[in-house]
Write a structure and sequence with these properties.
Number of helices: 1
Number of strands: 8
Oligomer: single chain
Order of helices and strands: HEEEEEEEE
Shape: globular
Structural class: mainly beta
Number of domains: 1
Amino acid sequence: MKKITLLIFILLLSFNGYSQSITGKWKTIDDETGKEKSIVEIYQTDGKIYAKVVKLLKKDEENKVCENCKGANKNKPIKGMIIISGLTKDDNEWNGGKILDPKTGNEYKCYLTLENPDKLKVRGYLGFAILGRTQYWYKVTE
């Protein structure tokens, strides 16, 4: 009986790694400079994942607008802008949605994978996942 209880306990702990949530605040890093760029909040609504910019970390960019965006986001403040929309969980990956790059105004397909509880892989791509770029976001602990 003790062996069965121990086995069940170990199995529950092993599944815990896959149930880690990606919701919360994450720090983004600029691809070109390697410097901290923004704080993004990932949240869930109606079973789908979304992310919005809650803070721009460069003091001179706090009120920056999305000049290159199209449609409703054109010239809107980046702070508060939803940059990831419509992702759903598929095993250990969230996919099926879009990511907006406020720098270029372009939208891409994307997927997210939790590398560990504090590191999120964010992949944006055109058509096929191999044609894109990866960023790593880091969990913000408050």
